[in-house]
Amino acid sequence: MNKKITLGLAISLIAIASAVTFILTSFFSLQSFNEKLVDFNEKSAKYEKLDSLDKLVRDEYFGEIEEENLSSGILKGYMNGIGDKYSRYLTPDEYQDMLTEDNGKLVGLGITVTVDESGYILIKEILDNSPLENSDIKVGDIIVAVEDMDILEKGYEEAVKAMKGNEGTEVKITVRRDGIDREYVFERTAIEIETVTGKMLDNYIGYIKISGFKKNTSEQFIKELETLTSNGAKGFIFDLRDNVGGLVTALEKCVDPLLPEGVIANAVYKDNHEETLVYSDESELNLPMVVIVNGNTASAAELFAASLKDFGKAKLVGEQTFGKGVMQATYKLEDGSAAIITIAEYKTALSECYNEIGVTPDYIVPSSAESTTDLQLAKAIEVINE
Fold it and tell me: Could you tell me which of 308, 325, 311 has the C-alpha nearest to residue 238?
């Protein structure tokens, strides 16, 4: 027999339910508010401490403060403070330089330089199509001034930065040879970076060296792969020694023609959801392959090697790789600067992430500076021939 509930009782139950809901909502709202208040107070304390330090420095510091450098330094310090060696802040100029380099180009004088023992700039290499190519400047010459800037006074980094600039603009450098200084004016030029080279070894073994993964790397790689294949290559050696990585999008286009159809690698984000990072279509190269790696093989280069190894397409020869299995995203800020932040780790679809571990070669072959023979390449050739 059904019992009827009186109107008064129903109203009382509704009131109690509403009260409980209000109490619970208020409790969680108050808890959330308290958490936000604690977070606000902690942040406020940090900024107050920074403000106190700023006042102290401005009152006591003997020298002059360059406000732009100070601002950049604070932001760089913040990114350093999160404790991730791959996350960093870029000034507007640094960000533009990174974009240019990622596109596979260099804008400047087209030279490779290093610090000379004198403190000046030593020219190590003059690239093809460099503005200096048809001048009388030679490898081994010393740059002692850039735009009348004394390099010993301003420093090597500032001088190298001054040689860069927008394509088509001019820059003056002072070059010293045998104690004699001469001034030159050159127009800054955009030069394509060659990240892929190839050749045919004995027994029709195709050899391809990849020095980095830029936007134009995949085009260079496919060209070398097709050329060597059409010339009768019966196997391939991919040399990724000292390749510190680069763009994953470029890597994907390079491994696509080598691997079977399907998901090759995934990215795992902070909430543990996964997304496909590298996918290969149905085209697949069925020839013997070897990848040469060393301790400086990192990031996208490691993913190249790990992918070919895990899918049974190649043997690895050389040394344990660097162990960078995390990826970064670049966020442009309002003033043209940018923040590079580590957002995920990645792994092949068949193995665990190798971050801080590296990829282990099938054949461990240490490099030897004392040997005139490239022992790692020799082993790679041996493996291919087998």
Answer: 308
